[in-house]
Fold:
Amino acid sequence: VMEGWAERETSDRVDALLDEYPNVLYIKSDPTPEDETPVKLKNNRFARIFEMVGDMYARPKYGTMDLTPFFAPFYMLFFGICLNDAGYGLILLAMGMAMLWKFKGGMMRRAAWFATMCAVSTIVFGLFCGSFFGVSLKAYFPWFPSVKFLDFQGQFFSIALVIGVVQILFGMLLNIWMTVRCFGFGRALGLLGWFIILVSCCLAMGLPMAGLAIPGFTAGSVAFYAALGVGGVLMLLLNNPKRNPLINLGAGLWDLYNNLTGLLSDVLSYIRLFAIGLSGGVLALVFNTLASGFVPEGANIVVRLLIMIPILLIGHGINLFMSTISSFVHPLRLTFVEFFKNAGFEMAPRNFDPIRKMNDTNE
Structure:
C-alpha cells in the first residue's frame, strides 16, 4: 500500500501510468485540512526570487496564503535602509551581475537575482541619504537633491517606527483576508475589530503628530469614538459568534492584553532599521576620517594615496562585510517574527518533493 501526492496539473499523467497496470487499484481524492499536504509554491518572476528567504523559515500550510509576494518589497526596502550607501550598493550590484553571468540556472542564479535586487534597493536608498562610501554627496555636490546623512538618521528613529506600524497593519489585513477565505466572515470579526481600533488610533493620533489631520476625525471627535466602539464590540463580543457572549468577553479581554503588549514589542523591533543603518554609516565616516588623519601635513598626492588607499580598502571592506550580514539577517527577523505573526502564518509540515528520474550523473 502506497500513498503519494501529485499536482493537479500533472495528475492525469499519474493516472495514465497507473492505468497501464491492470492489477493496481488506486483511489484519488483532494487533500483535506487534516492531511499533512506537502507544499509547492507558485509565484511570479519577482516573488520567486524571494522564495529562498521564506524557505529559511518554512513554507505556508497548504490551503493558506503564500506571503512571499507580500513581504518581498518590504525585505528589499529593509535591506536598503540597513545598508543605505550607494557605493556599497554598487559593489553588491557588481557581484550580483557577475553571479548572473556565471550561473545560468538553479539556486545560485536565484541567489544572484536576490543580491542584485537588494543592491538596487541599497543604491536607491543610499542616493536618497546622499551617502557614497560614507562621503556626503551634498557636501561635494550642493545641487544634489538628497537628505543630509546625519540629519536623516536623526529623523529616521521615528520613521522606522512608522514603517513598522505600516507593515504590521498590512499583515493584519492579510490575516483578516485569509481567515475570511478559509473559515468565513464570522471568524474574522475579532481580527477586524482589532484592526479598526488600530487604524483609528493611527489616523486620529498618529497623523496629527506628523502635522497632518483628517477633518472630523481627531482624538476627541465623535467619529473616532464611534470607530473605537465598533471595533470594541467586534473584538470583545463577536470574536467567535458561535460562543457564549460572556466567554467571548473574557477571551476578548485576554486577547486585548496580549495584543497590546505584543504590538508594542513588535513596533519597537523596527528600531533595528535605524540602529543598523546608523552604525554602518558612522563606521564608514570613521574609516574616512581615519584614512585622512594618517596623512602627514603637506604630503603630495602620491603619498596621500599610498597611505589612504590601504586604510580605505580594509576599513570599508570590513564595514561592507559586517553591514551586509546585518542587512541580511535583521530584515529576516522582522519578516519571520513581526510580519509572519501578525499575518497569521502557519507553516507546512513538508515541501512537495516529487519522485524524479535520475540520470547517470545523479543530477
